[in-house]
Amino acid sequence: MHFPVVFRVLSLLSAIVSLSMILPLGWVAWDGSADGKAFLLSIAAGLLVSGAFFLAGKKAGSYDLGIKDSFLVVALIWILASFIGALPFYLSGTVPTFTDAFFESSSGFTTTGASVLSDIEAVPRGILFWRSLTHWLGGMGIIVLSLAILPFLGVGGMELFKAEVPGPIPEKITPRIQQTALYLWGVYAFLTAAETALLLLGGMNLFEALTHTFGTVATGGFSPLNRSVGQYGSAYFEWVITIFMFLSGVNFVLHYRMLRRDFRPLARDEEFRLYLWIVLGCTAVISAVLLFGGHYDSITEAVRYSAFQVVSIITTTGFATADFELWPVFVQIVLLLLMFAGACAGSTGGGMKILRLLVLGRHTRAELKRVLHPSAVVSVKVGGKAIDDSIQSSVTSFLILYVTIFIAGVFFIASLGMDLLSAISGVAASLGNVGPGLGSLGPMDNYGAVPAAGKWVFSFLMITGRLELYTVILLFLPETWRK
């Protein structure tokens, strides 16, 4: 471990988080609310932390971050960002305890969208804007943003990129990691601007257009309204958000190439095709069940609500236009399974990722062929390219680790007195960064009644899921800390 270099990077990242709180002050000034003091104190505290890290890493020379350094930086910055980001919630009195503040903050930065707030519309707009802004910062990743700056500090960032970008195979657009980070953020900003403009054209005010856009492109799900997007009752808003949730669940490298008018990778990308077919298939099945079950009167209405909820869950956004706990149990099971699947690798979505499921399926099929033909050489291919044995092993290990953490989480949450359905869906929603679950944690409920110990565990699961498990779990291995 090269701790001075780690401290230098943490200094930069904590400063970015702290200074981003200047943006909500605009709404504080506009509304004349009293929460400006909370933001100023939070900025000061965050910059003090940044200054302390800067002094600790002052003697660090020019150095390329190693694997261990990168894992440590990525894990610590998400924890640190959650602590700094919790300060406005706590100091403004929006939530009664720091546990609730940390939960809300970590849910924001990890783009989970689970909330402890009951009357959201009673919260000042400055706090609500910060709440949604944490989504936008965490969506593409504070780390990816910092990669554009790290070279000027004499710190390389390729391992940092690998440790932060979701998915088993991080893909660079250009040979230079700094340029890759800038291009990814460019695509992210483009989607943000496009959706905001469309929502404004539909009649949504600027504040709500921005906060809903932040929740959409980051696949986060925080809404400034008590009943989320469903409160508008607008088909236009719902279809715009559905489309942008779907787009945000696509690998951002594909977005970049499409913006450059290169559509060939999209046509060849097996992960995208599977993602598309899952969305279309689940939407069709759920629409049919809801229509013939008498939940909706027309096919357009059934498709509208089904498509929104399917895309919201598979991309792990968590927006809601209907209380899907009132839908048939079969539909709820489908949505629960989509929580585990997640969106495409290289997107802002959470979950296990479609690419991993694709590799796992091909690996299983290859093993069955080897049983039938022991002497045959069977390779695992995705998109016409052979997948290395190391990646296949990594995917299998990830699945085993994911299921193990899920089961352990369910046992712990259930031991706190929560019913089994709430425990299962709450852990799945937290680990997959989805947000709403089932039972007492449904789309029209919140996490406010969860015991304090449960909120800390859910926060841990949210951060662990956002960082693809390994980044956090490796910190608990003694080998990580050995030279």
Low-confidence stretches: 152-157
Physical arrangement of strands within the biggest beta sheet? 1-2
SS element count, helices: 21
Q: What is the C-alpha radius of gyration, as a whole number of Å?
A: 22 Å
Structural class assignment: mainly alpha
Q: What oligomeric assembly is this protein in?
A: single chain
What would the average pLDDT be, to the nearest integer? 86
Biggest sheet features: 2 strands, parallel
**Termini separation:** 7 Å
Order of helices and strands: HHHEHHHHEHHHHHHHHHHEEHHHH
Determine the strand fraction and express it as a percent band.
under 5%
Strand tally:
4
Per the principal axes of the C-alpha atoms, what is the gross shape?
A: globular
> Which range best describes the helical content: under 10%, 10-25%, 25-40%, 40-55%, 55-70% or over 70%?
55-70%
Quick take:
With 483 residues, the chain is mostly helical. Helices cover 63% and strands 2% of the residues. The model is unreliable at 152-157 (pLDDT under 50).
Descriptive account of the structure:
- This protein is globular.
- A hairpin with a 2-residue loop joins β3 and β4.
- The protein is mainly alpha-helical and 483 residues long.
- It has 21 helices and four strands.
- The strands form two sheets. It has a two-stranded parallel ribbon with strand order 1-2.
- The longest helix has 27 residues.
- Pfam families: TrkH.
- Keywords: Cell inner membrane, Cell membrane, Ion transport, Membrane, Metal-binding, Potassium, Potassium transport, Transmembrane, Transmembrane helix, Transport.
- InterPro entries: Cat_transpt, TrkH.
